[in-house]
Design a protein that fits this description.
Layout (H helix, E strand, L loop, with lengths): L1 E4 L13 E4 L9 E11 L1 H9 L13 E8 L11 E4 L12 E5 L3 E3 L6 H5 L2 H15 L11 E5 L4 H13 L3 E5 L3 H10 L3 E3 L5 H7 L5 E6 L3 H11 E9 L10 H5 L7 E4 L4 H5 L6 H14 L7 E5 L4 H12 L6 E5 L4
Helix pairs in contact: 3-4, 3-10
Length: about 350
Amino acid sequence: MRAVAYTRSLPVTEPDVFLDVDAPRPKPGPRDLLVNVAAVSVNPVDFKVRKRDDPGGKPKILGYDAAGTVEAVGSAATLFKPGDAVFYAGDITRPGTNSEYHVVDERIVGRKPKTIGFAEAAALPLTSLTAWELLFDRIGVKEGAPSDRRSLLVVGGAGGVGSIAIQLARVLTGMTVIATASRPESADWASKLGAHHIVDHSKPLAPQLAALGFPAVDIVAALAGTRGHAGALIELLAPQGRLGLIEGDALSDLMIGDIAKLSPKCASLHFELMFTRPRFGTPDMIRQHEILNAVADLVDQGRLRSTMTRRLAPIDAANLREAHAAVESGRTIGKIVLEGWPS
């Protein structure tokens, strides 16, 4: 089968950072689906894995978002059947989605939204799972417009996760959503997704929030640039507030002194990694199947939009290199998707 792999941890500027390869077609295990991949998207985790995990000359396939059609199902699979259109984010401990055929545990797969194409759907899984789990499963935000009227600061509102977090908060809660963005185009994007207010994270946040009437915020979703804002975000947090992190490497910048400042406020720190459930095979792993189906319903109801802002075709080494370079720049808005295989 056709696939895109890397064999060495090279800078994205190197022309052979990715290679078009012929890989063995995988076989599904008992709870697996074999999916004919139609589209994939690129996330920061892709280039982070590429940089830190050198395969020593052996082809390694990345990719943690996919949309496609079920080709075959494992002996114990019950949630889907061949021919079903699906979307999912996969498992970081297994080969990635940048391949013509891919196997994935059915418990972390959702039905593809019916009202959008494969490319638009491929932009959604990882970021939707991350935003949903962070807000509702980790921080404990209450669903329902009148049930949760706290303030939410989304740091990195125009990024992949931020673009979904803004939408989920607006359509599923009554929270006031404040997003950060540093450029006119990213501020416009976050505003169109539903943010009530926009502040510039390249400038001190506290004065901007105070001018909007928020001397403190109830919930901070730190989704990007946490290393540069860690201490300031804790200072901004209201008593009994919630700070959510998705960047594991930012923890080193939250020094003991900073974390200690949470104590007198009775504020809490929450970590989110959407790979945790599949990686450890947690008893509630099927929660990701449920979340993705709920996301599909919201899309089909017209309440949630795909965050695809750029489409590249086909899925090959050259286009994957271009997508990685863009995501590594830290200046992308929404998601970059690759669709279709070379003929």
